[in-house]
Design a protein that fits this description.
single chain, 229 residues, alpha/beta, TIM Barrel, 8-stranded parallel β-sheet, 8 strands, 31% helix, globular, binds D-xylitol-5-phosphate, binds zinc ion
Length: 229
């Protein structure tokens, strides 16, 4: 039951349309679109116009990860651009419950992202308006970083919290998700993998080959894998 979502910030920006088409045909489950404002994180990536341009090239869900301050001010722009799912950072939202409720009211899957140091208990009083939690397994802002080992324990804690409270909430992991980290993040309760330079965008493989390699790896460890989005 593990789903694969390419992190398009790692893709060749000069060939994004063909990349999206290729990944769609290779059988990915969703597309992860990192948005950065240079304030919440010290980097910039893509904007709503780019998302609009690639929208027609796949029907798979667009999962927009807002690494921005005051995310509530920007949600409508990304919905209009074609987002199906939006995660906002708990650390950037003054009124997190209201933002998540608004996302749901607009028919968008409501996600909350947590920086590595933010405890899962932060979510205790919004679990009823959350569809998925993005556990940052690196410090947000850049691809190619190293997995933070304590995040294994955090994923397990989050899964325990969700299951104890009886919610149907998916756990997405984002950052250095590769063959060396996937078995343990799945074992501890993650079910949505954001795949960047660590397992998908590799010079030595075509995108189709990389997706096949990943799916084979998952099937060997997780025979009932099927896209769950
Ligand atoms: C980090 C981004 C990610 C990810 C990229 O802010 O949210 O999408 O790190 O993938 P990797 O870590 O494999 O290069
Ligand atoms: Zn991300």
């Amino acid at each position: 039951m593990t789903s694969i979502g390419p992190s398009l910030m790692c893709a060749d920006m000069g060939n994004l349309k063909s990349t999206v088409r290729e990944l769609d045909q290779a059988g990915v489950d969703f597309f992860h679109l990192d948005i950065m404002d240079g304030l919440f994180v010290p980097n910039f990536t893509m904007g709503p116009d780019l998302i609009k341009q690639i929208r027609p090239f796949t029907d798979k869900p667009f999962d927009v990860h807002l690494m921005v301050m005051k995310p509530e001010d920007h949600i409508d722009l990304f919905i209009e651009a074609g987002a199906d799912m939006i995660s906002v950072h708990a650390e950037a939202a003054t009124h997190l419950q209201r933002i998540l409720q608004n996302l749901r009211n607009k028919g968008i899957k409501a996600g909350v992202a947590l920086n590595p140091s933010t405890p899962v208990e932060e979510l205790e009083y919004v679990l009823d308006v959350v569809d998925y939690v993005t556990v940052m397994t690196v410090n947000p802002g850049f691809a190619g970083q190293k997995f933070i080992p304590l995040m294994y324990k955090k994923i397990q804690r989050l899964r325990e919290l969700i299951d104890k409270e009886g919610y149907n909430i998916q756990i997405q992991v984002d950052g250095n998700i590769g063959f060396h980290t996937i078995p343990e993040v799945i074992k501890n309760g993650a079910d949505m993998l954001v795949c960047g330079t660590s397992c998908l965008f590799k010079k030595e493989l075509s995108l189709k080959e990389a997706v096949q390699q990943l799916n084979t790896f998952l099937e060997q460890r997780n025979p009932q894998k099927e896209g769950m989005i």
